[in-house]
Amino acid sequence: MYDAGDPPGPAPAVPLNRVLLCCLAVVSVATAVIHFAVSGEHFQEYWLFGVFMLAVAWLQVAWAVLAVTRPSRALLWAGIVLNAGVIVVYIVTRTAGDVVGPTPGDVEPVGFGDLLCTVLEAVVVAGCALLGVARTGRKVARRQVPRGRLLAVPGATAAVVAVLLSVALVDGGPEMVMSMSAASASASTSGSSVPGSSMSGPSMPGSSVKLATATPAGDITMPDTSMAMPGMRMASSTPCDAAPTTAQQQAAVKFVNTSWQDARKYQSLAAAQAAGYVPITPPRARVVHYLNRASYLATLRGGPVLDLAQPQSLVYANTAQGAVLVAAMFITAPGGPTPQPGGCLTQWHVHTNLCLSGGRVAGVVGAVSSSCPAGSANHVTPPMIHVWFVPIPGGPTAIDATSAQVVRAAGQVSSTG
Questions:
Q1: DSSP code string of 11-60
Q2: DSSP single-letter state for residue 328
Q3: So what's the pLDDT on residue 107?
Q4: Could you write out the DSSP letters of every residue in 258-286?
Q5: What's the whole-model pTM score?
């Protein structure tokens, strides 16, 4: 029986290694969340990439659970091998490029989310090594700390990791946002349209427009301006959401069909290069933009902006079957006209985050780098408009799409063509 006059007993204590393992478990779960978040994008790019992301994510979750419930020396070594292996894959794909997939040798870009994931994996490796080395591991295991730290320290770790994870998910969010936007747009138009076109639906002018085309890209729908990627904005500061007239609908279909008919001669990248199209983005990237300088100079001198027979730019996707023509891109002169033959079905956009040097894209200003590479400068581009020839979300006149979506759509066209 405890007597109030007796001195209090020692405070409950737990081994320090248990506290550290709980912290490592929190970090491992964070890395799994990032891998789960990007697995859909990687499935779109190549099925094996998606499988790899899901497998790593589940293994990291399983490791975290076992680290809390059944820690062992073997588990520490498993944590080192798993996370070090993922780090090696990351380094290889960001330096030498992809080893397998539709674009072998394509160097993956570095983003805040994947860089954070790699740093957290390195923390798990270092922590497991610290606890697994015989001398340091025994020393840490013998040290006792107040039991309250078993919740406080991992809790503080979770709070810090949660903030970083939130930034990472927001930074990588466009992939998921665009997919969801495309799904909702598809749901809003399917079932409410009739073949050819329709303009019913009071909720948003033109939201139910669905116009059949003679291109592999499918039906024209009202562009969703929320699908604009980071570093992009619409060329006009005034939202364009007016319901297109019958004449504008017909003009939009003609614009898309004629663009496709005239661009088919450039389905071979070699033919485009022979006609003077040169890459202005890295030619081994998943999606590459080619510019015809003579065509653009003609536009700068007052020539037609929408020259369907000779667009200023062509866009190709590098796939397992080779380069696939995915779009024509029309570029106006700085401050020049932005004709909209289809009314709000054909909208122009600009890029605000590109680093330009000698007419080429040398880098991107974003979460990873706030400044341009030496010799380049950040400029707002002239307005431009795409006509897509592959079935990306949003149809032939969509504002833009992610590289993963474009490569996937290109693969669908090349596999059926």
A1: PPEEEHHHHHHHHHHHHHHHHHHHHHHHHHHHHHH-HHHHHHHHHHHHHH
A2: E
A3: 67
A4: HHHHHHGGGSSHHHHHHTTEEESS-TTSS
A5: 0.58
